[in-house]
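ugh ok so i messed up the first submission bc i forgot one of the chains. this is the corrected input, ALL of the components this time, i swear. 1316 residues overall. if the numbers dont match what u have on ur side tell me asap before i send this to the collaborators (the ones from the other lab, u know who)
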Amino acid sequence: MSAQLNTRIVPLQDTRITDKFWSGFSKLVRETVIPYQWEALNDRVADADPSHAIRNFRIAAGQETGEFYGFVFQDSDVAKWLEAVGYSLATHPDPDLERVADEAIELVIAAQHKDGYLNTYFTIKEKDKRWKNLTDCHELYCAGHMIEAAVAYYQGTGKRRLLDAMCRFADYIDSVFGTEPGKLQGYDGHQEIELALVKLYEVTGNERYLKLSQYFIDQRGQSPHFFDQEYDRPDYERYWSEGKGQRPNQAYHQAHVPVREQQVAVGHSVRAVYMYTAMADLARENGDESLLEACRRLWKNTVEKQMYITGGIGSTHHGEAFSFDYDLPNDTVYAETCASIGLIFFAQRMLQLEAKSEYADVLERALYNLVIGSMAADGKHFFYVNPLEVWPDASRLNPGRHHVKPVRQRWFGCACCPPNLARLIASLGQYLYTVEEDTIYTHLYVGNESTVSLGDRKVALKQEAELPWDGRVKITVSPERSGRFTLALRRPDWVRGELTLLVNGKRVDAASVVRDGYMMLDREWGPSDQIELALPMEAEWMIAHPQIRADLGKAAIQRGPLVYCVEEADNGQPLAALSVSLSAKLETRFDESFLGSGAVIIETDGWQDDYGDNRFEAGIPYRPMQPLRKPVKLRAIPYYMWGNRGEGEMAVWLRVRD
Amino acid sequence: MSAQLNTRIVPLQDTRITDKFWSGFSKLVRETVIPYQWEALNDRVADADPSHAIRNFRIAAGQETGEFYGFVFQDSDVAKWLEAVGYSLATHPDPDLERVADEAIELVIAAQHKDGYLNTYFTIKEKDKRWKNLTDCHELYCAGHMIEAAVAYYQGTGKRRLLDAMCRFADYIDSVFGTEPGKLQGYDGHQEIELALVKLYEVTGNERYLKLSQYFIDQRGQSPHFFDQEYDRPDYERYWSEGKGQRPNQAYHQAHVPVREQQVAVGHSVRAVYMYTAMADLARENGDESLLEACRRLWKNTVEKQMYITGGIGSTHHGEAFSFDYDLPNDTVYAETCASIGLIFFAQRMLQLEAKSEYADVLERALYNLVIGSMAADGKHFFYVNPLEVWPDASRLNPGRHHVKPVRQRWFGCACCPPNLARLIASLGQYLYTVEEDTIYTHLYVGNESTVSLGDRKVALKQEAELPWDGRVKITVSPERSGRFTLALRRPDWVRGELTLLVNGKRVDAASVVRDGYMMLDREWGPSDQIELALPMEAEWMIAHPQIRADLGKAAIQRGPLVYCVEEADNGQPLAALSVSLSAKLETRFDESFLGSGAVIIETDGWQDDYGDNRFEAGIPYRPMQPLRKPVKLRAIPYYMWGNRGEGEMAVWLRVRD
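and heres the new structure output, hopefully the right one now
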């Protein structure tokens, strides 16, 4: 294990996002998403699926009577919301919001049992079934989310109420699970507790939590299989089907073999990436080479063979799961928002293990395309499934495509995605830098002001960036005192050819200092040293790997970190009637008024099939004819902005004519 | 209503298939399929799903003890087999087969109740539930199939045992169902009885059966909805789900509105076309204009907007159903064999109502492509789902494509399709001609010797045809005595430009005598008059209607009635890497040894994507590059022959480059 073991992220409080592009999202999350989601959790959003999540806590706390309602993991929506609030308060104190959150925390604690146990479903509805169905019932998953909330809230506010409560819960969990005689040798069907316990360890220093996380990871997939043992218990009943139901599919839960033996990403994609994240955490914390090797292998399979160009993962809605290598259908896709958020977690942890820009490239891709695309411009509508091709009629009328929604929804019965997005954007500051001994890695070009501790030296960094519309970046480095250290700047995978890098106005030969995708500026840094970076950002035609059948003969447009798409609103329908030439110029133009925030719009000369009048008027819909076409100007918009102008067709991949 | 009301088909006994192409299929059905399916019905096929159908009858007849096994409609497999045997015996007497069938018929009759009722499921398993769940339980469907069997067996052998038994059953059904007080105002969830009762009427002359059929058709979809009334009964339970289950989806059963008000084809596709067939029968028998209008409308919607180029219908496996206009995905397709067989029934009935070649064109398309393609060359393996694009790995590993099998199966738990195919091919002689007053319509060019009654004159027809490989047809007309009548010869929709038509060696201007797609040869016919027809049969590139998104930018190859496809065995994989030019010549060549029977193979110059070595070796699978390609010779085979050379990719639609 290399020196990267000492790599760490920069605490959220030490980074203030000042970015033109991202400030908008941060503000939206702070001012709209977080308040809106609180209303949703309290069932005060009209025309939206009810949540009942807060009421469940009230009922469990004995403050109200009623029945449990919602999914077995409904508690986690409150946890993710509290986590988002914790992040938000870390950078933007807000006494009103803090008061609401404090009250919510008191409610959560009021619903906690004396022994530390917390779960409203099992408190209200299945009192005697605690830990009886780990396969299906998300008890440790909910625990993990509340632990993450507790850590974030403590880090954001300094308040320990929830943290202490969750330590009690974690201590109790530790007393229940493990390999010691009398303990339950189980693990959760939905991974999450594993990465949460590492965070709890990091903030408390209590190694018991790290060991418990390691236990869950090591135990998973061991023989005899825990889920089989559960299933074979006479009183066992599946939660998601009637009665005994089917024997659990181990691979769905990534429990088919021990984690170190897993070769490819399989099963439910969110569970997978949450698990990989914890594996990377443990590899880092424990210097565990075999775990790191498994992480590298699973990363490689995920991003090289099972990832959409938007950073989406999970090809099928059956089990919200990976299917198999190169099977990336654009229309029946799943690509759940949470899965790409989990992929970002995994990428962040891999960056802490080894500073290779490939991790940050994928992180940036998922973030700028799928993740922010899952939220409407109004911050109040969300995608759960993020397709690359939409035909609204098919979404409505072909049951195999019902899961693909042509417009974002106000809320979901299963509302895992919107609060997950909120917590990610609220904690964006944690994804910009990692620090390793005397090197500060810059992974994302997002305007910010940060203070980074480098050994016993504090370094103030001010970054001004124009991404994703322009590649100009200015970084002002102001160490407390002058001295030698390295500033490592990521060279994004979308940069072709030469880029311009100036330090205090003097050109640096960028190519000569690149290592693992980072330009290593190893020098004596003094007060207000200035770095200027001009990342060439050309719109490009992208093609897919020759085994990805869904994309063969097609091309997508990408510019910088942004993937583009065409919409019916600009190009008519059917979009499949459009074709393009890869030698056609991609003309870019900043449209200041586009969707209010403005965007670089891309136009290109293409064709639209045109069969003339009436040639298909009657008879069967097949003809021996040459398709005609007329030249048209195609208009592409950033993928993340699709679906904000009413319902219509959308496509990322365009048919290539030549 | 026009004079077509007197149109009739030619009895099966009066036609002997002598065709090179079809004799092979007839022989296969007679010598392999019928015996093989008898073995299957008796559970004597190794490695195949058990049928238990014959055992169910034995148990119901009290000749054996045991439990009912199989689908609630398992009886219908025996019925369809008996029907196929009836057809086969009509043209190819076979005492051994007849003895086996007679025994099977005695077994069926032994299982019949004194009151005429027959259904092994309700006899063995749910004694008290007769007529309690029409929505789900296929009682009248099974009755209909046994009635069809009885009619066919009577017509084929002159034996009335089963016919009399089924008249008793029909009489009993008539006493149960109807609008009269005290009768059940219901109808079956799966249409079939309606068309069967028309056949029973036609063979017995008993109008009661015609009226009962009319009742079922007229009652369907009336308010209050019968399926709702069933569902609202306190003791009602759905058959296909646990307990009460969901309220029936009326449209799935084509019971959402009365049949005359139905605008588009919806729901389960087999049910739909069986119903349309009965509607057309009743329109003909009763001169029912409003029913004819509905038939025309539903025909038009089905074949113009919801039919695959192979003659397949049903775009989704969810409910084995139609989805909506122009939604014809090639990969997640359903296109059940039975549905195209039902479409052929519907076409045949429409031809009896109005002799327009468009009906015969679709009939021919479904027959020569999907229907015969559903059976392996060995007559022992079958497709239930008939895709237009197959990626075997996806069939295995993407659950949304599990229903698409890359190779034909030995038998099915739900084995509706193989015996349906057997009965269709065994009765092919009924689809060649219709006779209307003084006109004999020739719908299919299939070698045969027939005797057709035209008024009080018998006309012997001898047809020699080379289809589907060559368009030469020779018809010898030998009336009992000379006289004037019309021989109407279909001009297939795949004929372009001029065709050659000679009568006794003299050229006839074909274009001038065409009416509704038939060349009307109205003349004095004498002994051994000869017609020679040369139908130009050029391989053609076909394109799809501009609203069929799945096929845009693609083309398929068709030659005469045959649709072609490419297979991995000839063209490597992925097939999506191939592209073609519509200006490339389609070279045809008869390969005598292909799959034993020989076939016209089509080759054309196309391209295969070729990215060179290693250009996608590592990293994410998207690149800014121009796809390279190399010229290749593409090899296409008739669609009906696909999947006979092991497992591999297959595609009907090919990407068009220019």
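quick check: The first strand of chain B starts at residue 8 and ends at 9. that seems consistent at least. Chain B has a mean pLDDT of 94.
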